[in-house]
Amino acid sequence: MAEKILIVGGCGFIGHNLALKLKLSGYEPVVLDSLSINNLHSEDGEEFHNPELYKSILKERIKLLDKNDIELIIQDARDYHATSKIYSKINPQIIVHLAAVSHANKSNKNPHTTFDHSLRTLENTLDFARSSKTHVVYLSSSMVYGQFNNKKVDENTLCNPIGIYGNLKFAGELMVKSYGQVFELPYTIIRPSALYGERCVSRRVGQVFIESALENKEIIINGSGKDKLDFTYIEDLLSGIELICQKKDKSKNQIFNITYGYARQINDLLDIIKKEFPKIKVVYKDREKFSPERGTLDITKAKKLLGYQSKYPIEDGYLKYISWYKSYFNKL
Fold first, then answer.
1. 236 to each of 37, 159, 162, how far by Cα in Å?
2. How far is CA 230 from CA 38, 127, 140, 203, in A?
3. Could you tell me if 28 and 69 are in contact, meaning their C-beta atoms sit under 8 angstroms apart?
4. Any idea what the Cα angle at residue 317 is, between residues 53 and 54, rounded to 5°?
5. pLDDT by residue (tens digit) across 271-318?
6. What pTM did the predictor assign?
7. Cα–Cα dist 171/182, whole Å
8. How far is the CA of 89 from the CAs of 30, 73, 80, 183, 187, in angstroms?
9. What is the 8-class DSSP label of residue 119?
10. What is the pLDDT of residues 108-151, one digit of tens each?
C-alpha cells in the first residue's frame, strides 16, 4: 500500500509541485489548503501584480492536482477541531507542513496574519502528530541564519534571524524541536534558499526579473547586484524532500540545508536574463532594510546522510524556468 503523505499548505508553490513529484514516485499525497494565502481565495486585500496571469497559474496548479488524481481538501489549517478530524481520517505516515506566509516583505507588513497562518497552523499539526507519532517535515527557511558572518553556513551555525519572517520561521523550528523533546515526536526541519521554478506567484527575485522582461518593464535591483543568494531550482528541493520521506530513519530529528549549495551574485542571474531578453533595462536602488547579507548553505550533511545531490545551477534551472514562463505568458 502506498505511503500517505499529507501536505498542509499543499496548493502553494512548493506544495503542489511536491504533491506531483510524490505521486509520480508512488506515494499517496493528500493536499490540505485553504487557498487563502497568496492563492485563489485570498482575502487580505492583497492585489496580484498581474491578476489575469497569476489566477491562471493558480488554477493550473489545481488542474494538475486533479489530473493526477491527487486529493485536495479545502480547509483552513488554523481550525483545530476541523483539521484534527481530517488528519485522523487521512491517518498519514508523514505530514509535510508548508502552511505559512511565504514572503519576508509581506510578513513584515502584516505580522498578525503571518503569525496566525504560520505558527497557529503548525501548532495544530504538531498537536495531532504528537499522539499519533506521525513524522513531521517542517519547511523553515535560510532566513533563520540572519546575517551570514561567513561565506558559508551549515546546520550548526548560530541562528540570529532578522525581521518578522525569519524570526517566526525560527520560532517554528523551536516548536517542532520542543515537541520532539517532550513527546518524542519524529521530525525533520528543512532550510531551503532562494527558490524558483514553475507556477510560483510569490514575487521572488527571479520571477520578478522574468515578468519585468516579459512586460517590457525595467528590472529593479535593490543594492549593487553583488549580493549573493543560494538560488535553488524547485526540482532540487523536491528531490531532497523525497529523500527525507524515503529515509525517515536517517532524517529523524535532523535539520538539513536543502539548496543548490553554491551562492551566486544577483548580477549572475541578471546576465542569464539579459541573454534571453537583450533589450531589458536595469535600475539599481538602495538595499532593503531587513534584507540580510547571505551566501552559500553547506549541503554536506544532506549529501552524507541522505545521498542528496543538487543538479541545477542557475544556468540550467533558470533557462528551464524562463522557457516555461515564455510559453505560459504567450498563451494568455
1. 24, 24, 26
2. 24, 33, 15, 17
3. no
4. 10
5. 999 999 998 899 998 877 667 889 999 999 999 999 999 999 999 999
6. 0.94
7. 16
8. 12, 12, 14, 22, 21
9. I
10. 566 666 677 789 999 999 999 999 999 999 999 999 999 998 88
Helix axes 13-24, 234-246, angle to 10 degrees: 50
**Spatial contact of 262 and 317, defined as CB atoms under 8 Å apart:** no
Round to whole Å and give the CA distance between 199 and 197: 7
Place of cell 528543512: 190
Give the CATH fold of the 4-331 domain: Rossmann fold (3.40.50)
Q: How far apart are CA 145 and CA 90, in angstroms?
A: 35
292 backbone dihedrals φ, ψ, rounded to 5°? -70, 155
pLDDT, one tens digit per residue, over 181-199 is 999 999 999 999 999 999 9
Q: Which is it for strands 228-229 and 264-265: parallel, antiparallel or unpaired?
A: antiparallel
Total length of the chain: 332
Could you tell me the pLDDT band of residue 45, with boundaries at 50, 70 and 90?
A: very low
Angle between helices 51-67 and 13-24 in degrees, nearest 10 = 20
Q: Answer whether 123's CB lies under 8 Å from 35's CB.
A: no
